[in-house]
Amino acid sequence: MCLIMDQFGTLGKVSAYLINKLYENNKTIFTIPDVKKILNKDYNQITDFLSELVKRKVLSRLKNGKFIIIPRETGNNERYIGNWFVAAREVINSPDYYLGFYSAMNHWAMLTQPLHKIFIVSPQRQFVPKQLKDILYIIYMNKKFIWGVSKEWVTQTQRVRISNLEKTILDGLLYPQHCGGITEISKGIWIAREKIDFSKLGEYVKKYNKNVIAKRLGYILEILELGTIPLNLDLRRYVKERYDILDPAMPIENKNKNTWRLIDNIGKKQILNLIKY
User: Fold this and answer.
1) How many angstroms separate the CA atoms of 262 and 206, rounded?
2) Which of 189, 50, 166, 163 is nearest to 110 (CA)?
3) Of 82, 93, 101, 216, which has the fewest beta carbons less than 10 angstroms from its beta carbon?
4) Roughly what angle, to the nearest 10 degrees, separates helices 165-174 and 182-191?
5) Over the stretch 36-76, which tens digit does the pLDDT of each residue have?
6) pLDDT of 224-239, one tens digit each?
7) Taking the domains of the chain in order of start, what are their residue ranges?
8) Alpha carbons 268 and 276: distance in angstroms, whole number
9) Under CATH, which number does the domain 2-74 receive?
10) Strands, sheet with 159-163, edge to edge from the N-terminal-most edge strand
């Protein structure tokens, strides 16, 4: 108790007692029922009490009914959310979520710039809590595409569900707008090239069974001179009559002819130039 009282010197006895008990129970992120187990108060008393602690910047609200203790060393940051990935896990309403796209690329060291937003995938539609509206981006995905996910350590004590390296690549090729575009994905593939399991990548292409993913992957691997002969041959099977755009977020302009029936609106030279930096 003394340590917590020193740390939260301006708190009353009840507040300090609550914070102390939450730390003891490893509940730096907690809910109203968690508080009810500690304090002998009814629901309305607890919500009023927690709202007061939020105003005093002792706590930060992640979403309605869920709070996080603000460490004193953060300087009373009222928008403190702790580890971004853990915060995303705590506010999403589905256990089948996973951190994906730009966030997963960041975890797998595929980026060369800092992450400014959290991308989380969920088979359940939900609004972003107002407390995280500038940070969190929720992407709906049909549950049949929720696979290729593993629990990864993001702090010394916390793990979250993150798409593995190969699933991250294919997700990005299907929805490049959530990864900074095809150039960013191409650069990420190049950075992670020695870690990629190309056999698994081929299995995942079959599981996704979407022509545009296979074509974009095949074209990028061809430009980067990566992949394996069996994989490249398998990817060729997905080349049909239809033409697809390489990067749907970019203006439609064919800058490079290819045999993948892709409208290359980026250009082979630009992709190759990017991987050099």
Assistant:
1) 19
2) 189
3) 93
4) 160
5) 999 989 999 999 999 999 999 999 999 999 999 999 877 66
6) 999 999 999 999 999 9
7) 2-74, 86-163, 168-277
8) 13
9) 1.10.10
10) 136-140, 118-122, 98-99, 159-163, 149-153
